[in-house]
Amino acid sequence: MVKGTFSPDARVADMSGKLVRRAVWLRQKFGTAVGLTVALLLVVSGSAAFSAAQQYEIMRADYGAGSQRTDVTATFRQVVCSQQRFRMGNSTFGFDPSPGNKKSLRVYVRGPRGQQTMQEFPESSTIDGSQYMCRGGGGYRPPPLPGPPDRGQWTIMHAAYGTERRNVDVTNRLRDLASRNTTFRMGNSTFGVDPDPGRIKTLRIYARGMSNQRRMFEFREGSTIDGSMFSGWRNGNWGRDPWNGRWNDSDYR
Q: How far, in Å, are 3, 66, 95, 117 from residue 69 at the CA level?
């Protein structure tokens, strides 16, 4: 559930009135069947145009609970421009501003006509980034991935997230993230699961080098992952062979 003070845009009422008047005119001129069909097309096209125009400019964003709130404006702007939909939580911003308390994200925005409002998202909400304008204009826009692609020295064999006692296979989810981002901040919301609640988790990536040497890369929850060290990172041609290893696999050091 998304809370906030959402003021209806004046264009909604104006557009609705115009569509109703147009539908009546079409019915009188062409008859009920044709009039309703054309009116329906007008409603669909009008709604699509309105949705495309209804984007908010992010003025400020803060995350936390009660008096323990931290400004996350820069991070939130970056996240909405790199991901169309994402689950929001501590790992999104890389810290917990109020341990033990249920937190929320407050986003102060300005609408297309200059109206200002506040949106509030409870922790773990899924946010649609396409409703916001990225800097430079436009809505959701994946940034260009920098540098020569996919030239790392390590090929990913498998990825797991969690703790030694409880962990899950996240290879497919990691492949999806890699196709859109060279770097990203990682945590429970990244993978959509908390395999061991109350404990600090890690992401373990098991990889093979150019000389067939094996290595395990470990990233603590909240870390930023840089995929440039891995071969084929963006094209996803890795991690597809059967995996028979373990969390603490002696073959990967």
A: 17, 7, 11, 18
- Cα separation, 178 vs 237, in Å, equals 11
Q: How far apart are CA 227 and CA 212, in angstroms?
A: 19
Q: E strands along the chain, which residues?
A: 3-4, 57-65, 68-71, 85-87, 104-110, 116-122, 126-128, 154-162, 167-169, 183-185, 202-209, 214-220, 224-226
Q: What is the pLDDT of residues 133-189, one digit of tens each?
A: 875 444 444 444 444 455 678 999 999 999 999 999 999 989 888 887 778 888 888
Contact 172, 189 (CB under 8 A): no
pLDDT digits (tens, 9 = 90+) for 93-132: 878 889 899 999 999 998 888 888 999 999 999 998 888 8
Q: For residues 148 and 231, give the distance between their C-alpha atoms in angstroms, rounded to a whole number.
A: 11
Q: What is the pTM of this model?
A: 0.46
Instruction: Tell which wins on pLDDT, 24 or 140.
Output: 24
Q: How many residues does the chain have?
A: 253
Determine phi and psi for 179, rounding to 5 degrees.
-70, -15
Domain ranges of the chain: 3-53, 57-131, 144-253
CA distances (Å), origin 159, targets 45, 61, 127, 152, 218: 44, 32, 26, 17, 10
